[in-house]
């Protein structure tokens, strides 16, 4: 039997990385830095390799935290399929998938690295062949299932985020600057136990979209364009002489968006009420989240095999592609808009 003093001496010699190891009882279970790893059993008579193992775990914990910042859970509450797309910002890698199909009631989880920035949106009315080539009525990204660095063709409702930005905070928003195609809500979960603000647009803007902004395929509006895209005028696009916050103000059209979706970006300089910050551990991005009056079952997380399955013709014909593209760009009114007093900029509140 070794007395306590001798055990303490051996502990200090063999395990310098674990101070005062003698205070541990023999075979004490150490607290684990990572909840998904099994507990490490450390003996007060441990060999130097035990110390190296513990250091390895700590290094791995630091690496894991730095490399995998959080998870996006993308959920489809819509009564029809959607095809989410993702686009990484400059200097950050693309996510593990940049485009996939989600049937009603399905959800997918995507891991994002620390410092990631980018956009997530949903496409609608898509048709893809077995090679992943096709077209979508709204939100198309280069005519492919996987967007591969291509952004959403307007109009599309966008979730935008920068992880671990200034002060270690995430910066996030839902934007209607490029128009609207589906309702979406972004719900962060705080890493610090406090509340983080959800944001988004739950209203069906397609129903209240002005005729001159509608994208219509014959059965009613399927998307609502921004005034910038529809009319290409500097004062709607906050460009040219209107390229500063002092010069570019809300218009009648952006005010329609803002009234329906107060937390979403309605025009380029709508920062004050539309950008949110949080230290989040994960985000839920829910399309067509049910509002009061009806309920829906929470989407089930799909496996990668499920959400990459494409039920489509072997190869789309040129006629089918042209027909779908024509529908994509058809609008109720494509005439050049002439501004009148009724469309004068609205003063800021």
Automatic annotation (TrEMBL):
Pfam families: Thaumatin (PF00314). Gene3D superfamilies: Thaumatin (2.60.110.10). InterPro entries: Osmotin/thaumatin-like_sf (IPR037176), Thaumatin (IPR001938), Thaumatin_CS (IPR017949). PROSITE patterns: THAUMATIN_1, THAUMATIN_2. SUPFAM superfamilies: Osmotin, thaumatin-like protein (SSF49870). PANTHER family: OS03G0233200 PROTEIN. This is Uncharacterized protein.
């Amino acid at each position: 039997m070794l007395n306590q003093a001798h055990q303490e001496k051996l502990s200090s010699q063999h395990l310098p990385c674990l101070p005062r190891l003698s205070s541990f009882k023999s075979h004490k279970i150490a607290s684990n830095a990572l909840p998904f790893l099994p507990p490490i059993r450390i003996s007060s008579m441990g060999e130097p390799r035990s110390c190296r193992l513990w250091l390895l775990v700590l290094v791995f914990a630091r690496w894991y935290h730095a490399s995998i910042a959080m998870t996006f859970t993308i959920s489809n509450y819509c009564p029809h399929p959607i095809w989410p797309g993702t686009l990484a910002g400059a200097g950050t890698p693309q996510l593990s998938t940049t485009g996939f199909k989600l049937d009603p009631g399905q959800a997918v989880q995507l891991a994002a690295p620390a410092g990631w920035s980018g956009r997530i949106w949903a496409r609608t009315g898509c048709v893809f062949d077995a090679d992943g080539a096709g077209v979508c009525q709204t939100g198309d990204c280069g005519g492919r299932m996987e967007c591969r660095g291509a952004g959403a063709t307007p109009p599309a409702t966008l979730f935008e985020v920068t992880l671990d930005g200034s002060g270690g905070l995430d910066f996030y928003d839902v934007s209607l600057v490029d128009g609207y195609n589906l309702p979406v809500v972004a719900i962060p979960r705080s890493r610090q136990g406090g509340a983080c603000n959800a944001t988004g647009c739950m209203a069906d803007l397609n129903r209240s979209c002005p005729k001159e902004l509608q994208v219509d395929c014959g059965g009613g509006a399927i998307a609502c364009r921004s005034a910038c895209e529809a009319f290409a005028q500097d004062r709607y696009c906050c460009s040219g002489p209107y390229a500063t916050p002092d010069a570019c103000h809300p218009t009648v059209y952006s005010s329609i968006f803002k009234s329906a979706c107060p937390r979403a970006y309605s025009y380029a300089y709508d920062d004050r009420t539309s950008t949110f910050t949080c230290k989040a551990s994960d985000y839920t991005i829910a399309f067509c989240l049910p509002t009061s009056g009806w309920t829906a079952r929470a989407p089930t997380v799909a496996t990668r095999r499920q959400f990459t399955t494409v039920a489509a013709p072997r190869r789309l014909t040129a006629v089918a592609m042209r027909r779908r593209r024509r529908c994509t760009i058809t609008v109720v009114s494509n005439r050049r808009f002439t501004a009148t007093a009724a469309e004068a900029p609205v003063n800021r509140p």
